[in-house]
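In the design runs reported in the main text, the only information available to the sequence generator was the tokenized backbone. The following block is the verbatim input for one such run; it is reproduced so that readers can re-run the procedure and compare outputs position by position.
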């Protein structure tokens, strides 16, 4: 499975942005899909994950971000609202097992940059 993340960009604090993660070489239906992010000088951190109807969010994004996937199981989305400067990072999508830990995700996209100006 190859993953391609897209949708990043430069926004102002309070704005919204939607990220997409498209799969090729297979469908995503058999995988838990997650989003992680990594800011400069910081470790990669969990953002959100989706498994069937179950979703999991980091406390820092709960209530602001929404993860979803399409019915064909080929694309996963991350809707980000009320963005803050602290949300700025490279965002990665990943496929694996339901977890907040990067080590439990076997497949990774290349990352998309999100920049939030204050």
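Verbatim output:
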């Amino acid at each position: 499975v190859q993953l391609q993340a897209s949708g990043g960009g430069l926004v102002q604090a309070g704005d919204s942005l939607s990220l997409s993660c498209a799969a090729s070489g297979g469908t995503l239906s058999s995988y838990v899909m997650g989003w992680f992010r990594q800011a400069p000088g910081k470790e990669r951190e969990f953002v959100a994950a989706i498994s069937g109807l179950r979703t999991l969010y980091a406390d820092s994004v709960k209530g602001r971000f929404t993860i979803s996937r399409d019915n064909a199981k080929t694309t996963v989305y991350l809707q980000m609202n009320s963005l803050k400067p602290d949300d700025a990072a490279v965002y990665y999508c990943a496929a694996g097992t339901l977890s907040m830990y990067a080590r439990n995700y076997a497949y990774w996209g290349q990352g998309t940059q999100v920049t939030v100006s204050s």
